[in-house]
Amino acid sequence: MVKMLFSENLQGKIGHDAILSRQEAELRLLELMRRCLISKVKCDKEYAVALSAVATQGLKIDKSDELCGSAISNSWKVMMEELDNSGKLIKQNAESVEAKVLDALNTLYAEKKRIRKLYQEDYTKIQQQLTNERQALGKRGGHALVNHRRQL
């Protein structure tokens, strides 16, 4: 079990609220990051498909003997092939982000939620123990006061 130790500044209600607030803010940030990365991956994949379509369209040139050996035709062909390669690289990068970064982000999000839950459970348990001790002390203190008055 993880034992949490905090400075005295974080041991009261204000500190507890500050910790919960920070945890919630981090979870919201991680969720925002996840949504943005999902959107980026989607856009990159769509862009890669569009580049591939443009390259395919651009390569549909007249293959007649009239353009054989043409520097312009050769340059155009190389440009379209490079455009297609760029699309493939963008798609590979998007898939890598999707497989690795989003997976790591989802794992981090789940871990942060687990830690927040554990912290809240521990805090509630400690608060209940404190309440029980105060009640027990109050009962003992009340009996001690009555006994003290009787002795006087």
CATH topology (fold) name: Substrate Binding Domain Of Dnak, Chain:A, Domain 2
Architecture per CATH nomenclature, i.e. the level-2 architecture: Up-down Bundle
User: Overall mean pLDDT score?
Assistant: 87
Report the CATH superfamily.
Arfaptin homology (AH) domain/BAR domain
Number of strands: 0
Summarize the amount of helix as a percent range. Answer: over 70%
Unreliable segments (pLDDT under 50, ≥5 consecutive)? none
In percent terms, what proportion of residues is strand? under 5%
Given helix and strand content, the structural type is mainly alpha
CATH class: Mainly Alpha
Number of helices: 2
Q: Describe the largest sheet.
A: none
Please write the string of helix (H) and strand (E) elements: HH
Q: Give the CA-based shape.
A: rod-shaped
Terminal residue distance: 51 Å
Radius of gyration: 33 Å
Q: What is the count of structural domains?
A: 1
Pfam family, one: FCH
Protein name: F-BAR domain-containing protein
InterPro entries: AH/BAR_dom_sf (IPR027267), F_BAR_dom (IPR031160), FCH_dom (IPR001060)
Keywords: Coiled coil
Features:
Substrate Binding Domain Of Dnak, Chain:A, Domain 2; 2 helices; 152 residues
Describe the structure.
The chain has about 150 residues and is mainly alpha-helical. It has helices at about 15-60, 70-150. It is rod-shaped and about 125 Å long. The protein starts with 12 loop residues before the first helix and ends with a helix.
Write a brief structural summary:
Keywords: Coiled coil. It is built from 2 helices and no strands.
Write the layout of secondary structure elements.
Elements: H1 13-58, H2 71-151
Helix pairs in contact: 1-2
